[in-house]
Design brief:
Layout: H1 11-16, E1 20-23, H2 29-40, E2 44-50, H3 55-64, E3 68-69, E4 74-80, E5 82-88, E6 94-100, E7 103-107, E8 113-117, E9 123-129, E10 138-139
Antiparallel strand pairs: 1-7, 2-9, 3-10, 4-7, 4-9, 5-6, 5-8
Length: 149
């Protein structure tokens, strides 16, 4: 849930940082994924379903909460649940982006970020990609500034 004192990012601010956010029709999610894969020339995708009550899923979620980047854009289409991305701006400050079912986000390659899913519900998303090696998480040294909690 968004804090009362948080200011919503404008489309112009997101665009200036190279972050793409949008929405898609949940009933046509497969078509949205297919379109993104075709646009980017990607052939692979990961279908992710996480339940915070399962230790393995909890561990995977904890890894995403530590600040990291990838060698390629991170593209996710959220089918269920909600969460928050904290994304480093060019000036090294944080930009917070809330996502939920029906939302699409593109975090630019080599942009440090962290993702924290809501523990209230299960999380499901589709993540198309161009190669597993491009999604490898490259972590920053963790300290109080880089940890989500």
């Amino acid at each position: 849930m968004r804090a009362e004192d948080e200011i919503e990012c404008t489309d112009a601010e997101l665009q200036a940082e190279g972050i793409r956010c949008g929405s898609f029709d949940l009933a046509a999610a497969a078509l949205a994924v297919q379109r993104i894969r075709a646009e980017r020339g990607w052939t692979e995708q990961e279908d992710v379903c996480r339940d915070a009550s399962k230790p393995r899923d909890e561990a995977e979620s904890a890894r995403e909460a530590d600040e990291h980047c990838h060698l390629a854009d991170e593209v996710r289409l959220f089918l269920e649940g909600q969460g928050v991305y904290d994304i480093r701006c060019v000036n090294d400050e944080w930009m917070r982006v809330w996502v939920g079912a029906g939302d699409l986000i593109v975090v630019p390659a080599r942009r440090y970020h962290r993702f924290v899913a809501s523990k209230a519900v299960a999380l499901r998303y589709v993540q198309p990609y161009g190669g597993r090696h491009l999604l490898m998480q490259l972590y920053r040294v963790s300290d109080d500034r880089t940890r989500a909690f």
